[in-house]
Amino acid sequence: MPLRILSYNILAGGEDRIPIIGNVIQKQQPDLVALMEARSRPNAEALAQRLGMSLTVGEATNINKDHVVWLSRLTVIHAENHRLPTLAKTLVEIEILWDEIPIGLFATHLKAGQNQESERHRVAEMEAILGLLHGRKNQLHALVGDLNTVHPTDHPNVTEYIAGLKAKGEQAPNPQFPREVIPLLLKAKYVDCYRTLHPITTGYTYKLPAPALRIDYIFASSSFAQHLYACDVVTEGDAERASDHLPIWAEFR
């Protein structure tokens, strides 16, 4: 059977946007949903109930309340919250059975900030994550989430990004600097699901208000990527106003 995974930063816990966030997710009919910035447990529970999915909450550090959660239509046979010391938030692991095959699914939200200092912190975060994932190398698995970094071959819409930040009254650093996080994943043989199937399309997932950066990803282990069937970013309908991020999904068969 097909397996569809969706990753979505819902912005500040979803606030009063939970109904339209639910509409966006429901329209995609995912089997599994990773949510970033899930600050409100009641909101996460409301989404799980609305979608008929189970809820696994990964609480972030005591300082950072941007929790990461998994919603699942499938039975979760194992769940673990990896609050690694290096992580700004956390790494949440669940394991499900797909046609009797155990699949490991990991969701995270790396440190924010489009500057070199933040990228160095994200490199340390990813090195810690890859150290943990190394123990899962013989299992089909995927890493999804808001990685807050740009693929080195992508082309951010710098003009739109800077204008959007200035309109929000925020400091506007230029997001063009050496990117080191995604190369770590590629070197470890993880497959960027979106870029594999869309080698040219921008695939921007972060908007302020217009899409300008691709920072949300679904990476599959090389063995799991052999089952990759489709991957796309949701841009239409309620997705335009539900969050400052657009959700990304991948389907495996």
Describe the structure.
The chain has a 6-stranded mixed beta sheet. Strands 5-6-7-8-12-9 form a 6-stranded mixed beta sheet. The protein has helices spanning 18-28, 41-51, 116-133, 158-167, 181-187, 193-197, 222-225, 239-242, and strands at residues 3-9, 32-36, 54-58, 68-72, 76-82, 91-98, 101-109, 140-146, 191-192, 206-207, 211-213, 216-220, 228-233, 248-252. The protein is globular, with a radius of gyration of 17 Å. The chain is built from 8 helices and 14 strands. It has a single domain (3-252), classed as Deoxyribonuclease I, Chain A, CATH 3.60.10.10. Helix 1 (18-28) packs parallel to helix 2 (41-51).
Q: Any key phrases for this structure?
A:
28% helix; Deoxyribonuclease I, Chain A; six-stranded mixed β-sheet; 253 residues; 30% strand; alpha+beta
